[in-house]
Amino acid sequence: MANKRKLKWTVKKKATVQQQKQRHTHEFLGSTKLAEQGEDRHNHRFAGVTGQAIPKGNSHVHVIRTNTDFVDHFHRVRRTTGPAIPVGNGKHVHFVKGTTTLIDGHVHNFNFATLIDKPLV
Length: 121
Description:
This protein is mainly β. It has one domain (27-113). Helix content is 0%, strand content 37%. Strand 7 (84-88) and strand 8 (91-99) form a beta hairpin. The relative contact order is 0.21.
């Protein structure tokens, strides 16, 4: 009978979690502009939730990081929003404009506004 060795694993946890106040986020959704010609002409859709608010000057911005839908391929959407745009009742949105990553020999342009923060509050 072979000797069985028991392995003892020691896991050390260092709890160094600092409580930080979370900042608001926004939902977003959009479609890219058309790219390519002929039978290859197409666009993509995307959706997600922004990163937390990042103070900037007298306003703030958010980071957008998502992928488009898959139409034989997908693109990455990486951008920082513009500053807050007031829309009334203490609410705001952010404008986003940019270009996707280069995949399959082409890119797509996009522009959209985030949805308002806290729509039911």
